[in-house]
Amino acid sequence: MNRRGFLRGTATIGTVGIAGCLEGLGFEEESAWANPPLVENRPDAVYLPSSREEMRTYGMAADGDYAVALSYTFPHRFWTVEATSDGKQRVEVETDDTLHLMTTLWDRETKTVLPVDMRVELLQDGSPVDAGISSPWPMLSQRMGFHYGDNVGLPGEGEYTARIRAGPVALERTGAFEGRLDTAASLEVDFEYARSDINELSFETLDESKWGTRDALSLMDHGDGSGSHGGDLGPPPTGQEPRIADIPGDSLGTQRSGDAAITAFVTDADRFTDGGSYLAVCPRTPYNDIILPLTALSATVERDGEVVREEGLVETLDGELGHHYGLELDELVAGDRVTITVDSPPQVSRHDGYETAFFEFDEITYTI
């Protein structure tokens, strides 16, 4: 019986929301390979998927300012952002996929997840293994937040090493990030793959009446990150940003476009500007406030009906504003109209619940 059959079976006996160990229930490895039901009539927005699954951490490592966590869960479908008619391509589970392998990379000083170029090499007994992964996809997941991942086909059970090369950070860096993270990191995490570990992951079917509801699953709890897996690195962050109310600067408000929550700030902090204004735009997922990296945005400033500035925003990391897209401007004055345009949607792959959102954006206008 595959996992889809398992879900149908639980619905038949009226057990909705059941969670447990697949292997303990007598299901074979294949039951962890089949996808749960895909919600029908999904909105062009963030929505609740049909199920929730457990994820566990193999281990963590550090190299200078960088830290990484290596996690795993069932192999499952996801969507890559592609130059197709609908902007995405569904990736199905292959029969030789053994798990979905995920990495979270962050800055140790600020506990901030880092969008970077990343390569992962899997080794066994010191020799490379062809497991179908080299450049993991940047991804959005309602449970994991922003991370990197892919389905992986390991040749068998046993001990492996994940060799991760990441960075340097190519984004503009200000405040606590200035002058740091400008070199690459090399990190290694040893782990042991056992089929029973995958089959023992818990799996929960949500109440079918909630499928497709405009909401999101809560972010997973990584615990405190201590012990054999994490040492003193602490739990990995998820890409959840500070509360809007805690960000310094003058907020122009939050508006929704493409179902992203987009907030604009204006500040005159001298690390951004010398006597002018700095515009910071923070697009996030609704409900969980996860960053939306690898997006192209531009701003148009109108004054007295005339366009006085039109330019692309720069993706930036700042210790106080967090991840945002910014632009230094001459001083803004009362009555100026600032229009934000999303020129390209987030170039990140999506798990269930995010694959229909963040593609079609309307312009957003703020008045100073």
Brief characterization of the structure:
The chain has helices at 3-12, 195-199, and strands at 51-53, 56-63, 66-73, 78-81, 88-91, 99-107, 112-113, 118-124, 127-128, 137-141, 145-152, 158-166, 172-174, 185-193, 203-205, 250-257, 260-267, 277-284, 296-303, 306-312, 314-318, 322-329, 337-344, 349-350, 364-367.
Topology, number of strands: 25
Approximate strand percentage: 35-45%
CATH-assigned homologous superfamily of the domain at 244-367: Periplasmic metal-binding protein Tp34-type
User: What is the helix fraction of residues, given as a range?
Assistant: under 10%
Protein name: DUF7350 domain-containing protein
Region (Disordered): 217-256
Domain DUF7350: 246-367
Give a structural overview.
The chain has 368 residues and is mostly beta strands. The chain has a domain at 244-367: Periplasmic metal-binding protein Tp34-type (Immunoglobulin-like). Helices cover 4% and strands 41% of the residues. It has helices at residues 3-12, 195-199; strands spanning 51-53, 56-63, 66-73, 78-81, 88-91, 99-107, 112-113, 118-124, 127-128, 137-141, 145-152, 158-166, 172-174, 185-193, 203-205, 250-257, 260-267, 277-284, 296-303, 306-312, 314-318, 322-329, 337-344, 349-350, 364-367. The strands form six sheets. Strands 2, 3, 6, 7, 10, 11 and 24 form a seven-stranded mixed β-sheet that branches. Strands 13-21-22-18-17-16 form a six-stranded mixed β-sheet, with no helix packed on it. 43% of the residues are buried. Residues 217-256 are annotated as: Disordered. It holds the Pfam family DUF7350.
